[in-house]
């Protein structure tokens, strides 16, 4: 795993007076010895009908908005330099936000994206697609989603792996997860725990086959759990993880990962994610997305090597929409 040298910090709202997320990101960058680019995408639609008598042209509005938001981010560039962090700021008219962040990440050659996690709950991971989830799917580099603005105090890290590949992740992804976690633990002076939720996926098992009785199905499940246990032991040994910090949990990862994160007082959970679609996505789901809402701490999502870019490189610019006609009031 290459060292993290450049971090793109996605700033959701430069207008906020308090920015605990930016402050936290700067401290992380200082620990990693990385430079930072503070980035904000202006994605709010602009009404086409501006008042020409006041000189409010689209070009003027574009320039003024860029200048205003840049000035606000530049204040945090000064703060970064006070902390000994090399920093720059950039603002662009672009939309949607997750694509704008990925486009800027590619141009800045960032090794990591840090973004604040949106608040709120989701009905189901395959029904609602907010910026957080789309960013996880589209980004070709690791994404650190901050659940809160609290600084990392325990410096405990929890890496969640699946060496049996029961949840359809690429075989190399677990090694990338642990390599990234080790790098962070070393830079932060933290303690690394590694876990595997030993809960084989039902996808691919002969469900619904009249020739397969429940006893056979249970035997298949138990056999897979034994294989998973051996695979995790071999993986953890090869990665030189101390026995006291290996955690094999016989539970669904959606429940097991947040529960163990609380038990070890983790400041950060490192896990992998792959983008899926269609029936396979509905049956398997995406563990990273489903876990995120219940995690008590920040999460770093690592992507497979050579992950394909999911966005176009062309900046969309200002989004101009026509003025909506006013409806007559009911008589």
Tell me about this structure.
The chain has about 325 residues and is α/β, with parallel strands linked by helices. The chain folds into two domains: about 1-140, HUPs (Rossmann fold), CATH 3.40.50; about 150-305, 3-Layer(aba) Sandwich (Rossmann fold). The protein has nine helices and twelve strands. It has helices spanning about 20-30, 60-80, 95-110, 130-140, 175-190, 215-240, 255-265, 280-285, 285-290; strands at about 5-10, 35-40, 45, 85-95, 110-115, 145, 155-160, 190-195, 245-250, 270, 300, 320. The strands form two sheets. It has a ten-stranded mixed β-sheet, with helices on both faces. Strand 7, helix 5 (about 175-190) and strand 8 form a beta-alpha-beta unit. Helix 3 runs parallel beside helix 4. It is globular and about 70 Å long. Mean pLDDT is about 85; it is low at about 120-130 and about 280-285.
Mean pLDDT: 84
Number of helix segments? Answer: 9
Low-confidence runs: 121-129, 278-285
Instruction: Classify the helix fraction into a percent range.
Output: 25-40%
**Radius of gyration, whole Å:** 23 Å
The CATH architecture of the largest domain: 3-Layer(aba) Sandwich
Distance between the termini: 68 Å
| Main sheet: strand order | 4-2-1-5-6-11-10-7-8-9
The main β sheet shows up as: 10 strands, mixed
From the spread of the alpha carbons, the general shape counts as globular
H/E element string?
EHEEHEHEHEEHEHEHEHHEE
- CATH class of the largest domain reads Alpha Beta
């Amino acid at each position: 795993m290459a060292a993290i040298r450049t971090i793109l910090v996605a700033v959701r709202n430069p207008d906020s007076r308090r920015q605990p997320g930016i402050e936290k990101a700067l401290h992380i960058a200082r620990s990693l010895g990385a430079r930072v680019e503070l980035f904000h995408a202006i994605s709010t639609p602009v009404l086409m009908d501006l008042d020409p008598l006041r000189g409010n042209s689209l070009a003027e509005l574009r320039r003024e908005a860029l200048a205003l938001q840049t000035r606000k981010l530049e204040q945090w560039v000064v703060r970064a330099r006070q902390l000994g962090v090399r920093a720059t700021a950039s603002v662009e008219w672009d939309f949607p936000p997750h694509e704008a962040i990925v486009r800027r990440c590619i141009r800045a050659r960032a090794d990591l994206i840090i973004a604040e996690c949106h608040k709120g709950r989701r009905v189901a991971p395959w029904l609602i697609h907010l910026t957080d989830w789309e960013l996880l799917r589209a980004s070709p580099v690791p994404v650190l989603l901050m659940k809160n603005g609290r600084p990392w105090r325990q410096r405990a890290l929890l890496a969640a792996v699946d060496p049996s590949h029961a949840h359809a992740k690429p075989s190399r992804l677990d090694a990338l997860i642990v390599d990234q976690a080790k790098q962070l633990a070393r830079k932060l002076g933290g303690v690394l725990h590694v876990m595997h939720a030993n809960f084989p996926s039902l996808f691919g098992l002969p469900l619904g086959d009249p020739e397969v009785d429940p006893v056979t199905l249970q035997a298949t499940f138990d056999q897979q759990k034994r294989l998973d246990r051996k695979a995790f032991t071999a993986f953890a040994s090869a990665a030189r993880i101390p026995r006291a910090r290996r955690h094999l949990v016989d539970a669904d990862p959606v429940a097991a990962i947040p529960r163990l994160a609380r038990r070890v007082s983790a400041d950060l959970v490192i896990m992998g994610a792959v983008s899926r679609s269609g029936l396979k996505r509905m049956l398997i789901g995406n563990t990273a997305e489903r876990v995120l809402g219940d995690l008590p701490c920040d999460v770093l999502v690592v992507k497979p090597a050579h992950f394909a870019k999911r966005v176009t490189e062309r900046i969309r610019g200002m989004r101009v929409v026509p003025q909506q006609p006013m409806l007559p009031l009911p008589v």
